[in-house]
Each structure stands twice: as C-alpha cells, then as structure tokens.
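Please produce the structure of this protein holding adenosine monophosphate.
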Amino acid sequence: MPFSHLGLSPELVEGVRAMGYVEPTPIQLRAIPLVLSGRDVIGSAQTGTGKTAAFALPILTKLQRSTGVTRALILEPTRELAAQVETAMRDFARFTNLRVDVMFGGVGYGKQRQALRTGTDVIVATPGRLLDHISQGDCRLDNIEFLVLDEADRMLDMGFLPDVRKIVQKCRQDRQTCLFSATIPPEIGTLIKWTMRNPETVEIGTRRSPAETVKHVIYPVADDQKSDLLRALLDQVHYDSVIIFCRTKHRADRIGQLLKKNNHAVAVLHSNRTQREREQALKGFRDGRFEVLVATDIAARGLDVAEVSHVINYDVPQHPEDYVHRIGRTGRAQATGDAFTLMVAEDAKHVAAIERFIGKKIERIKLENFNYKYTALFDEDKDQRTYNEKRVRGVRMSGGYFFGPAKRRKR
Ligand code: AMP
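Below is the modeled complex.
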C-alpha cells in the first residue's frame, strides 16, 4: 500500500516522497492509521524499522499548520537521537509551514530559548534540558496535544524516568500519547498505565531478535590478542563503514588512537566528548570522511547512520538488550550487514546471557591466517576440537570463515 492511502496529508506524502521512501515499512503501515485515529500507541519494534516516520507522519498531519504554539513534544534519551529525530521531522514537514526545534544539554541556552519564545510547533528534547527551560519560564507544556516517549527503556536505564514523569504531568490530560520501547520492563509497564489511555500495541517481529538482515558471529580470542585480532579483522574485511563498540570511554579512546596509528580514518563518540566533538564525529562518519566510528553504548540505540556495513563489538555488551541494539546499527532498512563480537574467556557469562535473550547460539568462527594463541574458549565445541587436534600435530590453525582477499573498498 502506498503512503498516499494511509490518510496522511498531501504535504506529508510529498515530504515522504522527497525523502525517497517508496512504500511504508510494517510498523508504519500499522501505526500510522492508529495514530491518525487518535489512539494511544505502544510501539515495540526492532531498531531501524522506520519508527520515527511511524509517529512523526501522523502527528505532523494532525498538526496541519503552524499556530505558533507548541502542540507536540517528542522526548528522546540522548542528544544524538534528539538531533536525528528533529532532522527527520523537519524533512518530513518541509512542504508544510510547521516548525520543529530541538532542545538538549551540552550547548548554550540562547538559540533554544529564542526558538521557544518565537513559537515552535514541535519540540524534540532530552528530559533534563527541557525541564531547565520550563523552570526558567521559557517553555510551557499546557498545549501539548501529542506526546511521544521514544526509546522509553533507554530513558529508564539512564535514570530519566523521574524527569519524564515531571514532564508528563505538565502536559494536557487529554493529549494523545505514543511510547516506543524495545523491551517493556515492569517500570515501563507502570509508566504506560500512568501516562496512556487504552493503548493499542504494535509489535513488529520478535522483540528480542536482532534484525534478520544481520549476519552475526563471535570471534573467540585470548585477552592479550584482542587488539591484534581487531586490526587483522579490519585488514581482511571488505567494509564501507564500521562501528566499533567498547565498554568504557577510556577503552574507546585507546582503540581510536590505536587505529589512527594504523592509518584508519577514525572518529570517537562517547559522553566525555564535547557536544561539538560528538557532532563532528557523527557528521564525519555519515559523510564517509571517517570509515571507522569507535563508540560506547551511547551510540548503540536508535542512531541512524545509513550504510553501516559492519558492527564490531570489541567488548561484549554487559546487557543482552545492548547486544541487539548495537548490532541493529547495521542491516537497517532492508540493507544487510555483518556484526562481529570479540569474546575472551571472562565474557562467557555475558555471551550465555545474550544467547538466552535472543534465543539462539551465535556461531563461533576464526579469522583466516591469524596467528592465534590458545584460549580455553577453543575447547567450547566440536569444530574447536578439530583445531586442538591440529594444534597437537603442530599445524597452524585455519579459520572456518574466509573473507576473500585483503582489500578494502573506500568510499
Ligand atoms: P528509524 O527506525 O526511524 O530510525 O529508521 C531507520 C532508517 O530507515 C532511516 O534511515 C529511515 O530514513 C529509513 N526509512 C524509514 N522508513 C522508510 C521507508 N518507508 N522506506 C525507506 N526507508 C525508510
């Protein structure tokens, strides 16, 4: 079914067409008519499924034209997501006269205050900065008719729920509310009961499974060979753009430095970097100026970077949901991608938790021509026993996975 049959305004259909979208994704097909009908909607969909348009298009249709009063509020857990959703909404709304503005911390108040004072129709915000503007008397929420709580489970993880509650309390009682969350832990269940009226749930695909278009594998390795294996992987893999996830900011910086020394064009993204540095890192990565983005989990959720061909988990994520979110950075919107996870012996417990969470075992493989040291992980299964037999006979291990000639495609 084309976008023009979903009940969206002609300006929004035109806006979507200008973005190059041909037909709605499953979540858009289901959520757009529901939101247009005025229902509260809970969206539970894999990342990269098109959920931004699923709420943005019907809300912008219902707003129709600018009144100079803020009537829609979208809450996001991170600055990057807020900026991304603002850009998407502006693009969708380009054939309307609706104004969309973004409010987040880490930057000055002036421009945001100005936008609030001159009247904006849609605010996309992170909770803390929005509350600052409210307490300073620059922003009121009494006219909010449409409220979206995006990435609600992430807001919970980041400790934002008390702020979210304060914000919801300030919005109109008869508003329409949409909530998006990859998982619905009990705290989110309570928030739903408290903020939503008779919501309809739209669930696309199994909530816990990674996108089907992503091929994901584990590389067992000895701890002190991790960075060598990472470099060897980058040398052998045909990639366009890679995101490498690290556990801590410090490790992200260290890996960033290491890869720079190895002549990779690298950007580093984590919360200790200034807002300007974060924006430059993302922009450069999106433009193709950086081929590698090294990041902590701040970049794991919802960030939309087109054409990420590979995700590498340099460190196994501590929370199973983060695994799904991290590898969701690749294989977005029908594209395919690969996700590699480096695993050391101490990671066994976390990997087991991830496999329980996604409901299947992740394939273990070895890199061709890499001079592996022994790790107990190689005793894990039958294939690995073959390796040990070879090792006993003094034969260098060969991997079960071949990437082809060591050549990288540059953009
Ligand atoms: P989201 O899940 O909203 O972050 O969207 C993920 C990516 O899919 C973004 O790059 C969108 O621009 C893209 N996208 C969303 N909806 C569609 C569609 N109907 N057709 C093609 N691409 C889409």
